């Protein structure tokens, strides 16, 4: 039986980012395979959909990053400007990513800085260890 390791509730850790950067709408932490690990500012269903979409986006960005001959082939930050706002996706640890949706008026520099600060401050909590097969009890 495949079991996920129990993680502490990290949703509260995302509150500081969401409240310190005006125009922030949603913050989600996800694993590389698209599972929601934490959320703030949205319901679980919406966070799950966003996490699943982010998994595909991080995979595409890693493929593009691999084309740079002098880099390590890993995605660090993706920013997408859409009608009505911005989407940010940042590598946040081994197998984990931080995703943010923000309205048009967001300060992009402040958002990037606060996302980096959050990853540095609590990065060890934002990793997604590989899942392991464990025998059923």
Automatic annotation (TrEMBL):
Protein origin, superkingdom: Bacteria
Roadblock/LAMTOR2 domain mapped to chain residues: 11-102
InterPro entries: Mycobact_SerProt_Inhib_Rv3364c, Roadblock/LAMTOR2_dom
Name recorded for this polypeptide: Roadblock/LC7 domain-containing protein
Phylogenetic lineage: Bacteria, Bacillati, Actinomycetota, Actinomycetes, Kitasatosporales
């Amino acid at each position: 039986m495949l079991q996920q390791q129990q993680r502490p509730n990290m949703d509260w850790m995302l509150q500081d980012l969401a409240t310190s950067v005006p125009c922030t709408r949603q913050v989600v932490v996800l694993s590389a395979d698209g599972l929601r690990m934490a959320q703030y500012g949205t319901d679980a269903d919406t966070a799950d959909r966003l996490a699943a979409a982010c998994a595909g986006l991080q995979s595409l960005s890693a493929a593009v990053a691999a084309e740079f001959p002098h880099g390590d082939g890993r995605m660090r930050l993706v920013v997408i400007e859409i009608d009505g706002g911005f989407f940010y996706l940042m590598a946040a640890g081994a197998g984990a990513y931080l995703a943010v949706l923000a309205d048009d008026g967001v300060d992009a520099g402040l958002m990037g800085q606060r996302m980096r600060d959050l990853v540095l401050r609590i990065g060890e909590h934002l990793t997604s260890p590989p899942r392991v097969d464990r025998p059923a009890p």
